[in-house]
Amino acid sequence: MAGNIGKLGRPREFDIDDALSKAVMLFWEKGYDGTSIRDLSLALGVSGPSLYSVFGDKEGLYVRAIEHYLSGDSCAPLVAFDQEVDIKLAVRAFMEAALVYSAENPGGNQGCFMSNCVSANTATIPGAKELLMEGILSADLSLSKRFDYEKRAGNLPSSFPSIERAKLMFDLRQGYALRARAGISYAELSQDLDSRVEAILGLSS
Asked: Cα–chain-centroid distance for residue 69?
């Protein structure tokens, strides 16, 4: 059975990816300091000794959880951006997904795991700062590469500043998350969505 513990304390058929996904959600919800080993044991369905056997300690599990988040398709705005063929619709989809995750996500945690949780521990958890930087640079690169593709396809002017607008998109997303945490509603945040899409694409008058 999956709950049986082997000689080293690791559950048989232990799904590490599934465990890391659950750990991400728990750390995201409660923060690193607010998440106990007992919380993790209950969420992952294994004992404390089993967690230590597999991940070393809570800090080790936290770093592994961040790496797992960065390695998968866990960022809904980026996924939405990649799925739209038209670049204007893609930018809008990114911003809409950022809004939903920031202010109106009933099925999970709000905002961004990296900015809401990981950024709070960069001074205390070894490796967290470097992983946060990796996440930021990866997002910038992913967005700017799409803009570069659209430039080559003739859908954006050759002078379009890809990396600058990629950074703007990322920063606007984080701004939505911050405003939502302050209590500003989805309805209010979405009022300027069109103007922000236009600003990103350089369509503002």
From this structure: 7
d(CA 115, CA 197): 22
Distance (Å, whole) CA 115 – CA 77: 14
Report d(CA 113, CA 121) in Å as an integer: 12
Q: Tell me the pTM.
A: 0.80
Contacts 24+ apart (CB under 8 A), 140-145: 140/166, 140/167, 140/170, 141/166, 142/78, 142/82, 142/166, 143/78, 143/81, 143/94, 143/169, 143/170
- Note whether 44 and 14 are within 8 A (CB): no
pLDDT digits (tens, 9 = 90+) for 141-158: 999 999 999 999 999 999
In angstroms, the CA 85 to CA 87 distance is 6
* CA 41 – CA 52 distance, rounded (Å): 10
The 8-class DSSP code of residue 119 comes to G
